[in-house]
Design brief:
The complex is a heterodimer of chains A (380) and B (355).
Chain A (H helix, E strand, L loop, with lengths): L44 E7 L3 H17 L5 H14 L1 E3 L2 E5 L3 H24 L3 H26 L1 E3 L2 E5 L3 H17 L5 H14 L1 E3 L2 E5 L4 H31 L7 H32 L1 E3 L2 E5 L3 H17 L5 H14 L1 E5 L32
Helix pairs in contact in A: 1-2, 1-10, 2-3, 4-5, 5-6, 6-7, 7-8, 8-9, 9-10
Chain B lengths: L3 E7 L7 E8 L2 E4 L6 E4 L3 E3 L8 E5 L4 E4 L2 H7 L6 H12 L1 H33 L2 H18 L7 H18 L6 E5 L8 E4 L3 E5 H6 L3 H16 L2 H20 L3 H7 L2 H8 L3 H17 L5 H13 L16 H14 L2 H4 L9
Parallel strand pairs in B: 8-10
Antiparallel strand pairs in B: 1-2, 1-7, 2-3, 3-4, 5-6, 6-7, 9-10
Helix pairs in contact in B: 3-8, 4-10, 5-7, 7-11, 7-12, 8-9, 12-13
The chains are: A alpha+beta (380), B alpha+beta (355).
């Protein structure tokens, strides 16, 4: 599945792997001290996102749900996922109101079981008729657009703000073109098309979303994506050169013998750090670019993430997660999310009250029909 | 008991927020707020379940929603939705510091148990399930790496013949119909050593052959290595290490590190050798095989003693004995095996000769 950890602004939750803020001084919701905003505010009005997440609170939720998942041999995982996500989305406040995550865990369980059954079928059939494994690749390719579109729709449909659900209305054709057609093109261009592909993915995700009758739009050229990936490639290149020289140097010191694993440890650290920084660099840079080029009808967003601070934050997160064998993961999520939301603003071009239920204006019953019978929810 | 709640009403039609005050009495939710009068049976209200201190949402069947911060007070009045008892329990658990503390300990203990007991079992099963061809390939890769460090063998032909002869003898006795490849090499620095690689390659150093002046000793060394090969210890070590890596990668979410590590596995094997547990298993296998081949276990004992004596004083690379069980312990285990052996085995003629 083609996915990376670059932001998908479609969901309000910052679902970053290693997100921002401190454990000690992070308590105290800042939203409460803000005086109620009374119209008339001059437009465009800049509204911050507040994050009410509390590390201790989230840690308790995380540990209880993780354990229940383990003790139920995974059956509870759908419920755990919903609770954690409800907490994350429900902790985000914009213009005095929170986001709500509404997914029914039973639907996610159905989706999980479906995926498990397909995998099982693949294993069993593949064992009896090994040729089928190649056939499975074809089936997987056919299913991919369906999985992507359904996941987006499920996720959007189950996120609401002020009692209004989000929608994702992408088509299977567009998904197939973006994730299969363009992927083939990347191979044909020896990877040169990759940054443009990332851009097109973002457009696919964002521009398919709506809140009521308001449309999300992502408009950007590919240039900024190319320059972000160019820097990231340079980082990897420099690391590769340094790593190669290190191996050559230690081989020379060993009198022609290749270095031993212990001697290679600095190399692994260097290599891992390089990859990590290049990945986080791209994330931070594209985060700003993507949000700054995203619109909800005439309303805009403003992202001011500092690349330097983001790299510092993620370095500490990574160290904490590795150092505690993953126990500080919830802390890292809280920090990242808080930092991200502290640097994101919604710029209202006019009163947002005008946003209505889809189909309300023309009197049709369109809108809340987004079918969700299978809770597919892959981490796009 | 007529608590007045404050909240916000959304009509589901627009994003407009309407401040609202409401009460819950007699099983009905009632609001007198101007323009938003409500009188709904609680049974028709679907409340969101409690989660930390998040606002609660009261979903009405007509699509309207009330958002309210007064979650705790509301709880006493709501009859609760479906599966209310279970979510209430989860919420209670999530609110307890002591549960979080105990849960953390439990999680650490569970992960520890999986790593210490679960992974080796999984690694063994997986190693045994690996097809022979792939096992062979893994062995070839390991051998390629080894070859870069190993010196050219200067072993005389008759010594090579001695080794082959003992190998054949053991294979016949054990009823093994696959013959391992023998690779002779020099380790330099007077290092007696032998390795078993996946797929049935036994690497034996000139120094070790020289040390094993007695054919029985040579057979003991070979039997031990056959044990490693037959029990697929090479693959098991690789799998154990990569599983540990897999756990780390799973937590950090970065699988690319895994591939970077996979290439260094031969080095790991070379440096640390097999784990103590594998050595004991190989010893037990060797004892069994030697008895089948009617070779006295005293040869095993003597080669162990010899190895112990030439063992470098300082810990260096390629230390054959570094991860092995203590020689004293191994010899003790051997004696125990000897005493339980059938008398016939014990008195069997020792047909090994000294060269």
């Amino acid at each position: 599945m083609s996915e990376d950890s670059t932001p998908i602004p479609s969901s309000a939750e910052a679902n970053t792997p290693l997100p921002p803020a401190d454990i000690g001084d992070s308590e105290g919701p800042r939203g409460e001290s803000v005086p109620p905003v009374i119209d008339p505010t001059p437009f465009p009005a800049e509204h911050p996102f507040f994050f009410h997440g509390n590390t201790r609170e989230y840690f308790r939720i995380w540990i209880v749900n993780t354990l229940l998942t383990l003790l139920s041999f995974g059956l509870y995982s759908a419920w755990a996922k919903v609770r954690k996500r409800r907490y994350l989305r429900g902790s985000i406040e914009l213009m005095q109101h929170r986001f709500e995550y509404l997914a029914d865990p039973r639907r996610i369980l159905v989706g999980n079981i479906l995926v498990a059954l397909m995998f099982l079928a693949y294993m069993v059939v593949g064992k009896v008729y090994p040729v089928v494994r190649f056939g499975a690749l074809v089936v997987g390719l056919v299913l991919l657009p369906w999985v992507i579109v359904r996941s987006l729709a499920f996720n959007a449909h189950n996120t609401s703000y002020r009692g209004m659900r989000f929608h994702s209305r992408q088509t299977y054709g567009a998904a197939g073109l973006t994730f299969i057609g363009q992927f083939i093109f990347i191979i044909a261009t020896l990877g040169l098309y990759y940054p443009a592909w990332v851009r097109n993915q973002k457009e696919f995700f964002i521009s398919g979303h709506q809140l009521g009758d308001a449309f999300f739009r992502f408009e950007s050229k590919s240039g900024p994506f190319y320059s972000a990936y160019l820097v990231s490639a340079l980082i990897v290149f420099v690391v590769a050169i340094a790593g190669g020289s290190f191996i050559a140097w230690s081989t020379f010191n060993n009198g022609g013998h290749p270095p031993t694993t212990q001697q290679l440890i600095p190399f692994f650290i260097l290599y891992g750090t390089g990859l990590f920084f290049s990945k986080q660099y791209v994330y931070a840079r594209l985060f700003n670019h993507i949000w700054n080029h995203t619109q909800l009808d005439e309303h805009r967003f403003k992202a001011t993430l500092s690349i330097k601070d983001w790299l510092k934050l993620q370095t500490v997160n990574l160290g904490a997660i590795i150092g505690t064998g993953g126990l500080l993961y919830p802390w890292a999520v809280m920090r990242s999310t808080r930092y991200t939301l502290d640097h994101l603003h919604f710029v209202a071009a006019g009163p947002i009250d005008k946003i209505s239920r889809l189909g309300r204006r023309d009197g049709s019953a369109l809108g809340e029909t987004a079918a969700e019978f299978v809770g597919l929810d892959i981490g796009l | 008991m007529n608590t007045v709640f404050t909240g916000t009403l959304f009509d589901g039609e627009t994003l407009t927020a309407h401040p609202i005050r409401f009460t819950i009495e007699g099983g009905r939710l009632i609001s007198q707020s101007e323009g938003h009068e409500l009188d709904v049976a609680l049974a028709d209200v679907r409340p969101s379940s409690r989660l930390a201190a998040l606002p609660r949402y009261l979903h009405f069947s007509d699509g309207r929603i009330i958002e309210t911060e007064e979650s705790a007070d509301l709880d006493a009045l709501l009859t609760g939705g479906e599966r209310a008892h279970f979510t209430a329990l989860v919420h209670w658990l999530e609110a307890q510091e002591i549960v979080a503390a105990a849960g953390t300990l439990l999680l650490v203990a569970m992960i520890g148990a999986v790593v210490w007991w679960g992974l080796p079992v999984l690694a063994r099963r997986a190693a045994m399930a690996v097809p022979d061809a792939i096992e062979k390939q893994a062995g070839q890769t390991a051998l390629l790496t080894l070859n870069r460090v190993l010196g050219q063998s200067r072993l005389e032909y008759r010594d090579q013949y001695r080794v082959r002869e003992q190998l054949t003898k053991l294979l016949d006795a054990g009823g093994l119909n696959v013959r391992p490849d023998l690779v002779f090499c020099s380790m330099g620095r007077e290092f007696p050593n032998a390795f078993a690689l996946p797929g049935g390659t036994i690497v034996i150093s000139d120094e070790l052959v020289a040390l094993a002046t007695d054919d029985g000793e040579l057979a003991a060394v070979l039997a031990h290595e056959i044990g490693h090969w037959q029990k697929r210890h090479g693959l098991q070590s690789v799998l154990r290490n990569s599983t540990a890596l897999l756990v780390v990668s799973g937590i950090s979410g970065d699988l690319s590190t895994l591939t970077s590590f996979a290439g260094t596995i031969p080095f790991m094997l070379l440096q640390r050798g097999y784990s103590r547990e594998f050595e004991e298993e190989a010893d037990a296998y060797a004892v069994d095989l030697l008895q089948k081949a009617s070779i006295d276990l005293k040869h095993f004992e003597s080669i162990l003693t010899k190895l112990q004596n030439v063992r470098p004083k300082t810990g260096q690379d390629f230390t054959y004995l570094s991860t092995h069980p203590s020689t004293a312990g191994r010899i003790q285990a051997l004696r125990a095996a000897q005493s339980t052996a059938r008398p016939g085995t014990k008195s069997a003629p020792d047909n090994s000769e000294k060269h």
